[in-house]
Specification:
Protein root UVB sensitive/RUS domain-containing protein, four-stranded antiparallel sheet, about 350 residues, Growth Hormone, Chain: A, single chain, transmembrane helix, transmembrane
Length: about 350
């Protein structure tokens, strides 16, 4: 951030003061005391920068490694709240994954002298193939909704991931002869998780990056998650090495999964998206009609549901189902408009780039 001060605001010898980020050291630029036209840079008004403590140096280093450049000005205000809960959920998800990986390895024959490498390989390839098909089908079916309802699909993805791991932990030990079928089902579920979670995460990253720094925000988010995964992996391996009791593993898995779902819910509820989707627009219009007040993004986002399938619809708002983006071809093929109606509507909306067509079912 570069500021210019007039002679009234600052001593005439100071020409510029520069500071990047609230925790950064400021520098001032003054005229060269020798009298020529060159500038002299001073750090915090001193010719030599102040010495930092060891603690301050470590904190600044970690901030440079794990936070976007220019934090907090380079991200939105809800970034910190979201990342705290996102870190908690990533930690829990990794531990849950380690607990279920133990069951998966046993199901494909690890530790079983009768199992062959070929059968384990075929099982692994088959489950991965089914998962890929699941990703393609889900992206075709729901890809268009992942941007507008990113909070809903982010929470849905993590819930589905927990459900898949729960099935693996429950069914694989009970039905070892059907491990291939179970793994195909759970891997297809995780394939959906990959699409929904990845797309919604990209949308959230775009929201947080206020300076067009999507790449930096995404990269630092990946660094944070990688660090958390390393720590969680160590904790998870320690858990497995100290206990083989199934009831204890189930107790740990249940606690971690519940905390994971809670952290995900808190994470998406902490977001204050500044654009309208259909539900946020409906809730904003309703609140304005009822109170004659214009509410900000934070209030509107708190009213929005984060559960897929639960939403404040157009019918609840005005009694009509509003469909946007219909083409004339769709209307003609569905016989929702005739030639006489089209002539009237075309004349009415002649100078506009849209057309409003009421349709009443008989």
């Amino acid at each position: 951030m570069l500021n210019q001060y007039s002679a009234i605001d600052m001593p005439q010898s100071i020409i510029y003061r520069e500071k990047y980020g609230i925790n950064g050291h400021s520098s001032v630029y003054v005229r060269n005391p020798k009298g020529d036209s060159s500038l002299v840079q001073l750090s915090n008004g001193l010719e030599t920068p102040p010495r930092r403590s060891l603690y301050s140096s470590i904190v600044n280093f970690l901030a440079e490694v794990f936070l976007p450049q220019g934090y907090p000005e380079s991200v939105r205000e809800d970034y910190s709240r979201y990342q705290i809960w996102d870190t908690v959920q990533a930690f829990c998800s990794t531990i849950s994954g380690i607990l279920t990986t133990h069951a998966i390895m046993k199901s494909v024959g690890v530790g079983d002298a009768a199992a062959t490498a070929l059968s384990a390989t075929l099982t692994w390839v088959l489950k991965d193939g089914i998962g890929m098909i699941g990703r393609i089908v889900f992206a075709w079916w729901r890809g268009h909704a992942l941007d507008t309802d990113s909070k809903k699909w982010r929470l849905f993805a993590d819930f589905l991931n927990d459900a898949a791991m729960c099935l693996e932990l429950l069914l694989l030990p009970m039905f070892p002869s059907h491990s291939t079928q179970v793994l195909c089902i759970t891997t297809s579920m995780k394939g959906i998780v990959g699409v929904a979670g990845g797309a919604s995460r990209a949308s959230i990253t775009q929201h947080h990056a206020v300076r067009g720094n999507n790449g930096d925000v995404s990269a630092k988010d990946g660094s944070q998650e990688t660090c958390v995964n390393l720590v969680a992996s160590t904790v998870g391996m320690a858990m497995l090495s100290y206990t083989e009791d199934k009831m204890m593993i189930w107790a740990l898995f249940t606690c971690v999964t519940l905390l994971h779902l809670l952290a995900n819910y808190k994470a998406v509820k902490s977001l204050s998206l500044v654009t309208f989707n259909r539900e946020r627009l409906n809730r904003y219009i309703r609140s304005y009609l009822l109170t004659d007040c214009s509410y900000g993004p934070q209030e509107v986002n708190q009213w929005e549901s984060c559960i897929v399938g639960i939403s404040y619809t157009d019918v609840e708002l005005c009694g009509f189902e509003i469909k946007l983006g219909y083409s004339l071809q769709q209307l003609v093929e569905s016989r929702k408009i005739g030639s006489e109606e089209l002539v009237v509507m075309a004349d009415m909306f002649n100078e506009r780039t849209y057309m409003l067509l009421p349709h009443f079912k008989s």
